[in-house]
Amino acid sequence: MTALTLSTAGAATLRADALVVGVAKGAKGPVLAPGSEAVDKAFDGKLAAVLATLGATGAEGELTKLPAASGLKAPVVVAVGLGPVPGKEDAYDAEVLRRAAGTAARALTGSKKAGFALPAGTVEDAAAVAEGALLGAYAFTAYQGGENKVAPKDAKSKDNGPKLPLAEVALLGAKPRDKAYKAAVERALALVEEINRARDLINTPPNDLYPESFAAVATAAGKEHGIKVQVLDEKALVKGGFGGILGVGQGAERGPRLVKLTYTHPKAEKTLALVGKGITYDSGGISLKPAGHNETMKCDMAGAAAVFAAVVSAARLGLKVNVTGWLALAENMPSGNATRPGDVLRMYSGKTVEVLNTDAEGRLVLADALTRASEEKPDAIVDVATLTGAMVLALGNRTFGVMANDDAFRTSIHEIAEEVGEPSWPMPLPADLRKGMDSPTADIANMGERMGGGLVAGLFLQEFVGEGIAWAHLDIAGPAFHEGAPYGYTPKGGTGSAVRTLVRLAERTAAGDLG
In the chain, at which end, N or C, are there fewer CB atoms within 10 A of the end residue's CB? Predict the structure, then answer.
């Protein structure tokens, strides 16, 4: 994990591999952002002009490297675009700063230390830069750089292993001795460490990450951070009657698990339950996915990874709220023992479900976990899942859908997500779509109308939420796994989508802001 410090040094005197400054897009060319004053002074006040000569415009995401002036200890200056210059009464948006810091951190892969002289005049700005830089300084290298055991090593050849992320971020322009700044930086570090742990889990190949090994990771984290962890294995799931989780996992050689993580605070007045879909590999089961749709299905446990990271973050931050996480873990595999289309499962709730499509498995494991979570009467439940391709068709690859049984709660989740920089959109639960899941054989079918499939999945889940409990469903199928080129602080692969939203929800609940 990249180190983060509030530097007491100035930009001109900091010894580092590079200095990062912000540049905005003005009406007549690039405009330097606050924080860059000392660097500009070293260029005799001509840094903006030099950048313009090099073709920089200040457009968001644009990055320009140039040799540092002689008055600076760092050898390189990295100018990152912030987009349009804000109005006189406005400040740079926090998400703009996160993305800019992330862009710069990615560009400095392989460096030991960089000074970030982006706008950090407020606690909020400093937190955004810290988060962005740490999120951008991420790489999943666990399976790269192994020794060549055939060819002898050439002592003169360079190491062919992967470049490591930027090792240290020195935040400039903040107030190192101010308690609020220190707290903001400490929060950013703890939060991003857990987001990156979620990213690691999502990126881990399914031959190494499966229900039992995921449960072991959760158990180890619980011991480290004072979280109570309970793991239900196959025998316990059979005894408890968790027909949904068992039905999905019965085709795999490696059995399913239901993991409960419990973080409590002695002064907490509210309890949140978080439920995560944890399909560690999704082949579609008997309803096998078509060619070209299997390669990234290790990411189908991203919801469980987000819940796990959020519970650990709440514990590390000492939030005055009780948070319970439920990880519904299974592999969805085809075999002679797999659930068939047409089978009927008896769920933990006692309801029966006719399985019309075994690739609609996430809602089955979530249903059991939602019922179990409801038994403890939390103040609210939020489930997170890479649930439907229909949601990707509706909202694209960067926005997740939010459904809920309470309009005010749905609005709060949407506002929180937007606040922390996670694009989301409120979606309805149209009652007329429920009829499509009527089954002549069971209480409900796991499929309904094809059109509006993401909403149908939400309606199915709603059937398993306890009466009188506020509930929201986040379908993160689009943003959970990024297959394109990295951008901002978003890497290729697992993104850790929804962690920041869940943690901010916990913080607001602890503060009493959600009623």
Answer: C
